[in-house]
Amino acid sequence: MSLHNGDPQMILPPWQEQPEERVTSATRAMLTKTAKSPRERKAVMTDARGVAEMLQCDLVTVWKLLDEERLPAAISVGGQERWRVLEIKHWVKEGCPDRRTWERRYYSR
Question: Does the global pTM surpass 0.90?
Answer without folding.
Answer: no
